[in-house]
Amino acid sequence: MGAAPAQLFPEFLANAVGAEGLLAEVVSSLIGATVVASIILAFSGVAGPWAKRKITAAFTDRIAVDRIGPFGLLIIPAASVQLLAKELIIPEGVDRPTWDIAPIILPASALLGFSVIPMGQIGPLNIHLADPEVGLALVFAFASIASVSLVMAGYASSNKYSLLGGLRAVAQNLAYEIPLIVTAMSVVIFAGTLQISGVVGAQTETLVTIAGIDIPAWFAFVNPFAFVLFLTANMAEIGRNPFDIPEAPTEIVGGYQTEYSSAYFVLFYLGEFVHIFLGGAILSVVFLGGASGPGPESISFIWFVVKVWGFFLFTQWARAAIPRVRIDQLIEIGWKGMLVLSFANLVLTAVIVGVIA
Amino acid sequence: MSLERPDPVDDGAVERTPDELEALLGDLVVDRDDHLNAPGFVIRPDTVQETLSVLKEQAGYDHLSVVSAQEYENRYESIYHLKKYDDPTQEVSVVVPADKDNPVSESAEPVFRTADWHEREAYDLIGIEYDGHPDLRRILLPETWQGHPLSMDYDLDRPQIATLPEHANPLQEHHKDADSDTMFLNIGPHHPATHGVLHLKTVLDGEQVIDVEPDIGYLHRSEEQMAQSGTYRHQIMPYPDRWDYISAGLLNEWAYARAAEDLADIEVPEYAQVIRTMGAEMCRIAAHMLALATFALDINGDFTATFMYAINDRERVQDLLEDLTGQRLMFNYFRLGGVVWDLPEPRDEFFSKTRDFLDQLPESVEEYHNLITSNEIFQMRTIDTGVLPPEVAKNYGATGPVARGSGVDYDLRRDDPYGYYDELDWDVVTEDGCDNFSRLLVRMREVEESAKIIEQCVDLLEDWPEDERNIQANVPRTLRPDDDTEIYRAVEGAKGELGIYIRADGTDKPARFKIRSPCFSNLQTLPEMANGEYIPDVVAALGSLDIVLGEVDR
């Protein structure tokens, strides 16, 4: 990073009003967290009822929502009211506390992940809540709590389809989390730190200059192979085609979320979208230079938005175009293919970095 | 007994005269009861297996099309309509009378697997019991149903309430054994992958399917009974549209038209035959497009673009059919002896619209190949899954794209020509893969063949002299086919051999109207394809069978 590192969001808030001490820290952190969560929830609110429909419609030669509001945008409040007004049906025999907690864990875990994600700047405001030294490890830890929620939902629903979905979720996450993290490790070797600002900072230098345009040293350009591996594992992590098998509506009727309705369903749905955005955020932090992009640093929030929405668009494209693999094929790809490739990548990177450094 | 007969080789290709067949069967035959389409041999109810084995193994009759059962004043009767896969014009009917008071006859299941469901249906609707049947239960009606609806003493006015049977206990003894721990799973009747109200009773070991049993009848609408209470001339024709309602209406109508026209000896004008051929092939394209679309849903998931693309193409055929028939789904366009009206005016506009569609079709098919069949994940999912070997397919009486996907070269349009097909230049499509992928490929290639047929029909129709455009033969206002004439006739529907058996009793309504549904026979093969595979493969196999529950249950 060129200039002095920008202040983190809570510090900025505390300094702005000149408050100090523990209370100020707590309050400013809470305010910061609320702002960040609101941004992400707003993304999901736009994505779920509106953008997803519009994008899928564009892929499938349809028009989708266009009746209320400009471009059908008012479907967002309308859908919110409609979804929340639905009756919550609690099936007989569900394992109550577990069944109720599961839909809360999914969006919560994904939102937690955003606590360490640098989301770029709006003017002097640096939207970045915390920057611990183990930031990257932390964000993967948060992201993988999601599978706990899926297992809880699958088990507690007392439904065989849900159970199958839960089992599939575990199998899938085990098979893909390891390659995902091992691939991220290769980036850590490059950057020499787990701190997220360090990982992002390592990507700000210029890799090459082609025809007067500086190509930054984003790890996606430095190691495209690792990028593709990570992208694939990330798709499995967030459970989108070709890896949407824990839900697989045409096979197991929605898997773990089969029995959920009303607000609980919304929470799951929301959690999935937050999870997709978290996946996009991790991808941009680790491989796409965080929130950096052309132009002054004060507008870098825009680049962050572009990157995570770009990833969202990519997931929807995959949904429209790619068939779903079978569960045994998925396990095979994960354990026999991705795992081996990711370790090969790790070792190679380590050797190369060792030789150069 | 059969060992003594001098018949060394399986000579399926040799055509035998009825008398030679009678000689071959020897004293198994107690009487002759010839049908319009085939010689009929009456046999004793305890020699069914023996007779059918002789016909299957020594005379090459390897296709049991259908079992039609009925009740007479003095007896019950099951008719086994046999054909050859190599030459379906060689037919023979085996007539098995059963005692009026104690209707029992031997089951044909050990000889032809397909007899399993057909005999269950006969038991369910007529009340004949089949001795030696492995699993003689009701098939279309609920298990608690009282009486047999197509039998003579059945009280149609008595209301019946079918209660829901208690849910099968997943931990019952037979779902578990010493080595494995299995789970019973109800797939359907309301499930996204069953394409209708089909119920699959599935036993799983983890994700693997150990046993799957289709449970049908949720969409049973007494179509046979309704046809039996309609008059030949006009009242029956609307019903076929409602069997395979996936826009295969004209193909179904043709099945009735063909059977009734042959029964009443009606000649259809050539011009009407060309129109029929064109309309029927349009229906086939529409039906296959939907099969492709829903198969993509099964494999890709419910946001796939392929589904809407195929529906768009189907929509264009649907528009053509609407122009032609005035209806989009329930066409009711055929009449005995012709069609209801001529091509829409202005004719040129219809022709150019049709040609536009045909011109754009290769591009669409190319796009489907790009999107799905050449996709590696798609191939991984479909190749070598849901395998149906040709011998098994024949044993189950599978027809249509399901049989052709297993390399069984059987297409009634070519092998038992009707309409204008034998005048046109087209090919029967077969694939040898025997898997889900082959069945899909067969449908995609058949779409192209159908397009070829339509194009030739359009050429013919364009140049047809104006004063020879005869769309309807002279048919009496009331049709009364002769008493005690029986016929079984089939056409190549979208899903396979769609046949109709009619027995006339001298009145203007059929005494027995039996529908041979291709989906019914094809669905029977599902356990063969699915056992031992994973759940997603069962879904794929079911999708590749392309069943329509309206036709399975009738």
Automatic annotation (TrEMBL), chain A:
- Main location class: membrane
Q: Which residues cross the membrane?
A: 30-51, 71-89, 101-122, 134-158, 178-200, 207-233, 263-288, 300-318, 338-356
Keywords attached to this Swiss-Prot or TrEMBL record, sorted alphabetically, are:
Membrane, Transmembrane, Transmembrane helix
Gene Ontology terms, MF aspect: NADH dehydrogenase activity
Example GO BP: aerobic respiration
Q: Where in the cell is it found?
A: Membrane
One GO term describing the cellular component: membrane
The record ties this protein, via InterPro entries, to: NADH_UbQ_OxRdtase_su1/FPO
Task: Give one Pfam family, short name only.
Answer: NADHdh
Q: Which domain of life is it from?
A: Archaea
| Keyword Disulfide bond recorded | no
HAMAP family linked = NDH1_NuoH
The molecule here is called Respiratory-chain NADH dehydrogenase subunit 1
Question: Which species?
Answer: Halorubrum kocurii JCM 14978
UniProtKB/TrEMBL annotation, chain B:
In this protein, which residues make up the domain named NADH-quinone oxidoreductase subunit D? 304-554
Q: What are the TM regions of this chain, as residue ranges?
A: none
Q: Which UniProt keywords apply?
A: Cell membrane, Membrane, Multifunctional enzyme, NAD, Transport, Ubiquinone
- A Pfam family annotated for this chain is Complex1_30kDa
According to the UniProt entry, its GO molecular function terms are: NAD binding; NADH dehydrogenase (ubiquinone) activity; oxidoreductase activity, acting on NAD(P)H; quinone binding
Instruction: Please state every residue range assigned to the domain named NADH:ubiquinone oxidoreductase 30kDa subunit.
Output: 42-158
Location of the protein in the cell: Cell membrane
- Show the coiled coil region(s): none
Quote the catalytic activity from the record: a quinone + NADH + 5 H(+)(in) = a quinol + NAD(+) + 4 H(+)(out)
The terms describing its cellular component in GO are: plasma membrane
**How does the protein associate with the membrane?**
Peripheral membrane protein
Highest taxon of the source? Archaea
Keyword Cell membrane found: yes
By its UniProt entry, which PROSITE patterns does this protein fall under?
Answer: COMPLEX1_30K
Q: InterPro entries, alphabetically?
A: NADH_Q_OxRdtase_suD, NADH_quin_OxRdtase_su_C/D-like, NADH_UbQ_OxRdtase_30kDa_su, NADH_UbQ_OxRdtase_CS, NDH1_su_D/H, NiFe-Hase_large
Similarity section:
In the C-terminal section; belongs to the complex I 49 kDa subunit family.
Quote the subunit structure annotation.
Answer: NDH-1 is composed of 13 different subunits. Subunits NuoB, CD, E, F, and G constitute the peripheral sector of the complex.
Q: What is this protein called?
A: NADH-ubiquinone oxidoreductase chain 49kDa
The organism of origin for this protein: Halorubrum kocurii JCM 14978
